[in-house]
Amino acid sequence: MTESSHVSPGQAVPGPAGADAGRPASAAGHLDDRPPGPAGSRLVVGGALLDGGRLLAARRSAPPALAGRWEFPGGKVEPGETPPQALVRELREELGVEAVPVARIPGTWRLSPRHVLQVWTARLVSGDPRPLEDHDALRWLTPGQVDEVDWLDEDRPALAEVVRLLTADGGRSGAGDRNAGGAGPGGPPVTGEPPAGTLP
């Protein structure tokens, strides 16, 4: 992508020439560790954390322009890290949990002129999610509940694919995962606050 190209927030971003930025590395399901996105862009990785057929949503507490909206938890990939390594670190720092990256959601989305987003599904292994950094509430959502919270626009394309995956396997994604505690399926936010539909 050239500097003169205009990309709106949330718009899909093509990968480097000759690369398909939206596909996992192989049909065998191996994790794609390639640096994605246009040259000069910093990668942000988001985690579609799954447990028992549910998706964890995190409500932003900052900056003011994003506060109160919901997103996939995650953060910037640091130099020397692969996206899966960054996701494991970010979920540990932001939520206090251990998770295993499973697969990359097809696509890369522009967050700002300097940042692009990739989203990975991840399986919760241990810990009870808590909003430790950048968030003030968490909520487990079934596929039928994802529209009950106000998602960041940039997360919506990946969210649609995560819901499709959860629905296609009849809610079995994460089957065999431990119950993460906190809110049960369709329950209130993990923080104990009222459901998102009742928030001011």
TrEMBL record:
Presence of the UniProt keyword Signal in the record: no
Ranges of Low complexity composition bias in the record: 9-29
Domain Nudix hydrolase: 40-165
Gene3D superfamilies: Nucleoside Triphosphate Pyrophosphohydrolase
Reactions the enzyme catalyzes: 8-oxo-dGTP + H2O = 8-oxo-dGMP + diphosphate + H(+)
Keyword Lipoprotein: no
Domain of life according to the entry: Bacteria
Protein name: 8-oxo-dGTP diphosphatase
Source organism per UniProt: Streptomyces zingiberis
